[in-house]
Structure prediction request, 429 residues.
Amino acid sequence: MGRKKQFNDQPFAYHQEIELEIATLTNLGSGLGRVALPGSDEAKWVVMVPFTLPGERVRVRVFRNHKNFSEADLVEVLTPSPHRVAAPCPVFGRCGGCQYQHLAYAEQLMWKQRQVAELLKHMAGIEFAVAPVVPSPRDYGYRSKITPHFNPPRLPREGSSGTQPQDMPIGFLRQGTRFDLVDVPQCIIATEAINARLPEVRAGILARAAAGDYHRGATVLLRDANGEITTNYEAVITESVGDLRLHFLARDFFQNNPFILPAFTAYVREQAAATGARFLVDAYCGSGLFALSASSAFDRVAGIEVSESSIRFARENAAANGITNTMFQAGDAAQIFGGLSAHAPAFSAPDTVVIIDPPRKGCDEPFLQQLFSFGPRAVVYVSCDPATQMRDLTHFLAAGYTLTAAQPFDLFPQTRHLECVLTLRRTIP
Prediction:
């Protein structure tokens, strides 16, 4: 990692090596330890060190000092954790895609459960018993979509030296950087079918780069649908989730661990149905995953989505699966629930449960205001970022909702990411 021009050398010099014990893992996947600074006997200064584990004594090299903590690279594990395992990927530690390959899978699940509980306590201000994380049926070879990046070099003039296309990395961001790429010939968290196709795709990219076809950085898509690989962003994908067969565009958002989806969607359905509501609204319905998988438990189901192309797929998916009690509409972001009464008068708020699965940034304030004004009996909140979910939870609590269940799912083994489902019931009329 290159040295910054104006390195802040307090409290540590650039690349100063120190020893410390790792106390915990952050929700970003880094080990966290504390050290005493000169003139103090108390170990209070925080040091973040990726690829370390709680209980380990480590030697680290500081590369950045912030106002309240420092960041360091791991130099040596002096006392390893009993839960440390050999990472199977040759680029683990350099590639920024995985954070936990060095941690036994059962311990990954335990730490993710603990991190959700800590976020509930520190961000939402509540103590709550978080359920054990539901594990992925596969902890490797599960990811059905990857998007390797590449930055083609400028072709050298004839007779001159320079970077050749065959030296161009095709892969993912290097750990701790925002632009530097690591070459990843195989990605062991991706499915076998993706890895079987990857060499051919990489060879094609290098051939086109040598011909000068690329003038800027780009991303390539590999998407696995039941063993069939597409690299076409506009291709129509067919994904099976239990008895459902769903169609959507390869570029569209869809959960990338198909092996856990039956259990995941079944839980969301059960939580929504257990509220006793007769009607369901899926407020970020996409191509219909939650709305259609839960439809048999409700009299009527409405799916709302700002993307009109996704709504078309949702309607087609309902028809193809013989589901007749659903309606899907493209909703204006400013009036998500405004069209419900016009199109479906039966959707009375006290008899309705809402499923929300927002983007990683969570719900924005206008959406939450609309949701609270509608006032459904209950909300099942699905999130891929528990931190933004807990931020939003504070608004639900203030609006008269009570948390009744917190269930994490490990859709992303070997990484710091997880999905968390919160069930919230309205307690204030």
